[in-house]
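Chapter review. Work through the record for Glycosyl transferase family 1 before attempting the end-of-chapter questions.
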Amino acid sequence: MHNPLHIGIDARMYGPRVGGGGPGRYVEQLVLHLQKIDDRNRYTLFCKRENFGDIPLPNKRWTKVVTDVHWYTLAEQTVMPRAIDKQKLDLVHFPHFNVPLRVRTPFVVTIHDLIMLEQPWSARATTRSRIVFELKRLGFAKTLRHAVQNARHIITVSNHAKNQIIHRLNTSQNDISVVYNGFDIAVPKSANTKQTSNRGSSILSRIQTPYIFNVSNSYPHKNIETLLHTFSFLLADHPNTTLVLAGPSNEFQDRLKEEAREIAIPDDRILFTGFLRDDELTALYKNAALYVIPSKVEGFGIPPLEALKNGTPVAASRASCIPEILGDAAIYFNPDDIESMLEAMERLLTDRSLKTALLSKSHAVLARYRWDDAASQTLRIYERSVS
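Structure tokens for Glycosyl transferase family 1:
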């Protein structure tokens, strides 16, 4: 058995407080489950001042270091390498592609997707000018290639992403492991508290039922604009249906609000909720008539799994990794075809036997994604990468 390792984890994106999105949830759950299963190695977590108090330390083998540097900045390239190398680690894990170019410590990197490489410039694809967008993409490509070429090992979250990395970045399949994100199929304890019940009831009181639900950051690859147009047609036969879109407010969401007005979706038939707590999201998942994920590109896709866990059927895009993750527990549509999306949504609204059949398959799908398994596989990768 090897000597205990000193492992660093870049936890600046940890949790929802700092806006780290999917990678933030990933590193949060990875840390919490490594704390449960690893009783040998030492860990140092690099975090921001803002999320420092959110990260528990279960014993003396776990420490935290404030590295108050935002991602994708010049300081990330200058301050982070010094902070990491100072700790004299055996290995550091970057949970996103943004590995500082000058870091000397051996590292493992998780690459969730290649969305930035796949997204061509257009006025709707970005809030930036074409020149700024292309410069940003060049920086992304350089950082990504550095991460891939210099990592001791690469982790990714789907076979779809693995194949993309191999073919687009000329990487050996032996250097990449697929470790599916975990998914806790138990209902959170907080969902039973009075506070949760009150918050859930409050958000539900703002919504007319039945409603169709989606959670996303509104970025163009999420394809919410096509969902809006599809919903406008659906209202012809289902005029009492509401579309509920959860996610943080941003410039892309402002564009969607304007688009909804332009295509004359009534104000009382669409709700942009803004950021919601987990317990509020649980209430919305549980009471939705259906969940729809129209994305053209995804890294993994936790929200439709949340819907299945809460007994809500899913209509999903037949694109990217989505069919790989959801398997036979969803009904699929072409994300570029409004008629295809409309048909899938209408079938779930009207066909009770279809809903029952899909949900009967959901438990087996959800059981494939366990954070304990993800943490165990990741720990083995750490140990192999140092030996």
